Amino acid sequence: RCGRCRAPPRLSPQRLRAAVHYTVGSLCRDVAEDKEVQFSKQTVAAIAEATFRQCANPGKYIKGCFLILCRHAKRSTITTEDVKLLARRSNSLLNYITQKSEELTSSNMELKEKKRKKSSASKGGRMPGEQEAAVTENEDSNMA
């Protein structure tokens, strides 16, 4: 990941093609063991190339859809709602994206809460609820 923006590293087309070829080779090897068949190197390469080409086109389509959505909404940021909008035709994909989005939101909220507690503790101050309790105790002791 990039140190500044935490974005995943960009893969060159050659590295991406090699990764697809490796994955297809692994899958073919698993099928070969399971079904007791063999795949030639040329077959694996043909399947990998077809897979790579099939995956490249939807990627360009999706990128174009995101650009259209952002222009229409007069925004420059793609949100999770934009992603859900494009995934709405596939219930399983939409459910997966929604689940992951909720997990990320929950995780981010927990991190923010931890940072908030840590920063208030490092300042030597009490949490807002603790301050109210201390004021109430002081008022009670003064009344007695």
UniProtKB/TrEMBL annotation:
Metal-binding found in the keyword field: no
Region annotation (Disordered) ranges: 105-144
Keywords: DNA damage, DNA repair, DNA-binding
Gene Ontology CC terms: FANCM-MHF complex
Domain of life: Eukaryota
GO-annotated biological processes: DNA repair; replication fork processing; resolution of meiotic recombination intermediates
PANTHER family hit by this protein: CENTROMERE PROTEIN S, CORTISTATIN
The protein's name: Centromere protein S
Organism per entry: Centropus bengalensis
